[in-house]
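Quick one, probably user error.
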């Protein structure tokens, strides 16, 4: 009830927002409310968008997924690939005035590894210890080679929080986060607004030209677009492709697009009291579901052909995509035959989806497609954080979810598909897959790694605990008054270099 009231107020009142906001306040409409603003426990994409302004990382990435220095200025591997040594940026200060140094890195990595509430444990499990070589040099000692570690440190596990604040606030750190980024936390009203303000002692202060940023969660795309047009918002993210023409044809707005690592998939719950037994217990039923879906038609109907149909967590054409197992064509006859072989021609299950209009439309199109094969698919919608909470508890049969993607392939596969993956909500486990992924992590040469990722693909595409559907195209709408916004394949909004004209 609170959510619907908030949207109504936005629809009625945010049209006045541009006259009330200061010229140096950037207003960003998010598709959903972020979860905890703690890099240790956060899992939502909206949270990562906010973190881009709050929390610098050891490593960043550019638009081509190349690694860039941020809080670490350089790094190198030992000859046996068991030690990663990083040189740290001097003169960096946390937002509470505490200095950033090698001891800070050691504290953060150990916090991510040991805190009961941390979701980063799997990502860092190969890190055996962290050595403070000197105040500005840190060495990661590994139990086994882990090529993806640089990619891991370019995301939440590489975000550095103030050791003083982290120790004082513990699990409640996300209520008042303190990092080393360009903006410091000011306030948050759940489901309504997060406000951050410029941190004057930021190490790259010369690149920051906007005084404050307000992040406002608005799941209704029509409301987001209306308020962008009126001036109530300066940026809206994850614009539906159907709204792109309206933005492109409006002189006061800019349409910004970029390829994306973000993909959507259906997660099928394989264990627990809430599973749909035919779907969970029989791979033939999951295969029937898979071949009953026409990914290309889904892309045309819902996304105006702008997205990329896919059956893997790696974008087609990328180095680690398995071109030998392309997107399958729809085969309704095969789907029906598989259900007959499984002895259940009308399996029933419920798909949990976020309460965004686009996600619900995707679910409805899939519902129609699989219904023709004999599936009785129901749709249940929930607020995004409610969906994640239910999924983490295994309280679902199938759920439509997305992963924003990572620069290293391991970060797009292991987190969902590995037996101990931190987002393996459906309890899928194949030891052979885990072994292939482990071997891929131990080598750095791309063609050698690809051999192991192809082996992994042959396994997870047979088991079908996750049905990968499509990679999106990032689409943003911005006010024409905004300059310096550089889109990236990770979909984050980096404030460095952005200016907002009066």
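Nope, works fine. Designed sequence:
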């Amino acid at each position: 009830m609170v959510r619907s009231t908030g949207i109504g107020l936005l629809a009625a009142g945010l049209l006045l927002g541009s006259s009330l906001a200061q010229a140096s306040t950037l207003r960003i409409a998010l598709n959903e409310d972020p979860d905890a603003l703690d890099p240790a426990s956060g899992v939502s994409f909206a949270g990562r968008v906010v973190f881009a302004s709050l929390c610098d990382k050891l490593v960043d990435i550019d638009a081509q997924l190349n690694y860039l220095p941020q809080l670490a200025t350089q790094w190198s591997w030992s000859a046996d690939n068991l030690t990663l040594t990083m040189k740290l940026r001097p003169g960096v200060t946390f937002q509470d005035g505490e200095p950033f140094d090698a001891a800070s890195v050691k504290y953060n990595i150990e916090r991510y590894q040991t805190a009961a509430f941390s979701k980063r444990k799997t990502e860092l499990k190969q890190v055996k210890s962290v050595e403070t070589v000197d105040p500005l040099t840190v060495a990661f000692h590994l139990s086994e080679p882990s090529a993806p570690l640089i990619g891991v440190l370019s995301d939440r596990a590489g975000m550095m929080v103030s050791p003083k604040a982290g120790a004082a606030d513990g699990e409640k750190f996300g209520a008042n986060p303190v990092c080393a980024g360009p903006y410091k936390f000011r306030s948050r009203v759940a489901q309504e607004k997060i406000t951050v303000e410029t941190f004057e002692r930021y190490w790259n202060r010369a690149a920051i030209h906007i005084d404050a940023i307000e992040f406002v969660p608005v799941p209704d795309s029509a409301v987001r677009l209306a308020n962008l047009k009126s001036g109530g918002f300066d940026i809206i993210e994850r614009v539906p492709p159907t709204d792109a023409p309206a933005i492109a044809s409006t002189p006061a707005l800019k349409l910004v697009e970029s390829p994306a690592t973000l993909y959507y998939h259906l997660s099928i719950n394989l264990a627990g009291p809430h599973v749909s037994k035919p779907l969970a217990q029989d791979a033939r039923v999951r295969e029937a579901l898979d071949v009953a879906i026409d990914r290309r038609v889904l892309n045309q109907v819902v996304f105006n052909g702008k997205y990329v149909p896919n059956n893997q967590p790696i974008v087609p054409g990328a180095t680690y995509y398995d071109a030998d197992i392309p997107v399958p064509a729809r085969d309704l006859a095969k789907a029906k035959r598989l259900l007959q072989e499984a002895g259940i021609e009308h399996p029933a299950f419920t798909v949990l989806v976020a309460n965004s209009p686009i996600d619900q439309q995707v679910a409805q199109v899939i519902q129609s497609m699989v219904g023709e094969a004999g599936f009785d698919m129901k749709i249940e919608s929930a607020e995004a954080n409610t969906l994640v909470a239910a999924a983490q508890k295994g309280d679902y049969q199938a759920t439509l979810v997305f992963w924003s993607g990572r620069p290293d392939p391991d970060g797009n596969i292991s987190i969902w598909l590995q037996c101990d993956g931190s987002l393996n909500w459906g309890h899928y486990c194949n030891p052979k897959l885990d072994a292939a992924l482990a071997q891929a992590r131990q080598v750095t040469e791309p063609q050698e790694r690809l051999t192991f990722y192809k082996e992994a693909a042959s396994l997870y595409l047979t088991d079908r605990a996750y049905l990968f559907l499509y990679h999106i195209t990032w689409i943003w709408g911005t006010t024409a008054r905004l300059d310096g916004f550089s889109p990236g394949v990770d979909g984050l909004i980096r404030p460095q270099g952005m200016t907002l004209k009066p």
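The two ends are 36 Å apart (CA to CA).
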